[in-house]
Write a structure and sequence with these properties.
The chain has six helices and 23 strands. Strands 16, 17, 18, 19, 20, 21, 22 and 23 form an eight-stranded antiparallel β-sheet that branches. It has a six-stranded antiparallel β-sheet with strand order 2-3-7-14-9-12, with no helix packed on it. A three-stranded antiparallel β-sheet has the order 11-10-13, with no helix packed on it. The longest helix has 9 residues. The radius of gyration is 20 Å and the shape is globular. It starts with 8 loop residues before the first strand and ends with a strand.
Length: about 325
């Protein structure tokens, strides 16, 4: 298998009690009649959660199958990899999410079964008036302080909070306490891990009237207490026109494109995950044209060449790849 063309995967929809219906109404996802569609997993290779190619000669193939049989074409300079290391998702937060923390790679490697750590970045697509993000501990909060407030049911007083605006980007490194508030529509790129330790769940119950499990000891052991408040990042100009850097770490790079004309996908021997967060674009590759709208995601393998994006009016894309 060689010269893979850009691929579109079938989104995996997740229903949780804090979700709503904006994934369908605003991002054009094929949701059902339920009221709690919380996440759309766009690109994933994690256990039973597998992105499946939606159309073309590879239709029905999972991302893990492609990693196994065509790893060099997928990864290019980053080959070999045992599985795809990133996960892209959209989140519709109609209720505040639990206060939680994720382990780093070393901590997650000790789990049974082992997993990756989870560093993630958020891009705010929409924020209702008064919506909040909780990111990091307030200055001066140490473990004894947090344990004391947890025992009193007041853990939120330890959290840094602010009201975000559409376009804000935050990098949430593993070990950072965080929670997304109600009224947010978010695009998230993260390591391909689903290990989460809940510290506090706002005293709510699930559909059966039971509180969701907490993982207080694991969370307290995982938190990096040297890391204080997390604030939105200032975009940095790149050497490419209309492309700005939102976040960069050793796990991924996240760029935002605002193209005003046709623009090539870099031929840099690595994959690119592109998702449309505003407007419409056309993608051309090997004489084929694919029309994409807000909420659509395209995966460009490292081997793909001469791939070009052209906006239809104003368009904004996120581009995610390995360092």
């Amino acid at each position: 298998m060689s010269e893979l063309a850009p691929l579109r995967f079938k989104p995996i929809l997740k229903e949780y009690l804090w979700g709503g219906r904006r994934l369908g109404a605003e991002l054009h996802k094929s949701i059902g009649d339920g009221p709690h569609y919380a996440e759309s997993w766009e690109v994933v290779d994690h256990g039973d959660d597998q992105s499946i190619v939606a159309s073309g000669p590879l239709a029905g193939k999972s991302l893990h199958e492609l990693v196994t049989t065509a790893g060099h074409d997928i990864f290019g300079r980053h080959h070999p990899r045992p599985r795809f290391p990133l996960l892209l998702k959209y989140l519709d937060c109609q209720r505040v999410l639990s206060v939680q923390v994720h382990p780093n790679d070393e901590q997650a490697a000790e789990l049974d079964p082992p997993d990756l750590g989870k560093t993630e970045a958020w891009v705010v697509l929409a924020a209702d008036p008064g919506a909040k993000i909780y990111a990091g501990l307030k200055e001066g909060v140490d473990r004894p302080t947090l344990e004391r407030e947890l025992a009193l049911g007041n853990s939120q007083v330890c959290l840094h909070e602010f009201e975000p605006r559409a376009g804000d980007c935050l990098l949430i490194e593993a070990g950072t306490v965080h929670a997304l508030g109600a009224g947010l529509l978010i695009a998230e790129i993260q390591q391909a891990s689903d290990t989460t330790y809940r510290l506090f769940d706002w005293n709510r119950v699930d559909r059966d009237g039971k509180p969701r499990p907490l993982h207080i000891r694991e969370a307290l052991d995982t938190i990096d207490y040297s890391r204080g408040p997390v604030i939105p990042r200032s975009p940095i100009a790149t050497n490419r026109p209309n492309v700005e850097r939102l976040a960069e770490c050793d796990k991924f790079i996240l760029d935002r494109w605002c193209p005003d004309s046709a623009q090539p996908i870099p031929n840099d021997n690595r994959f690119h995950i592109l998702t449309i967060v505003e407007g419409n674009v056309s993608l051309s590759a090997a004489s084929q044209i694919d029309h994409l709208r807000r909420g659509d995601t395209i995966f460009v393998p490292a081997c793909a060449r001469d791939v070009e994006i052209a906006p239809t009016g104003r368009a904004v894309l996120l581009d995610m790849y390995l360092p």
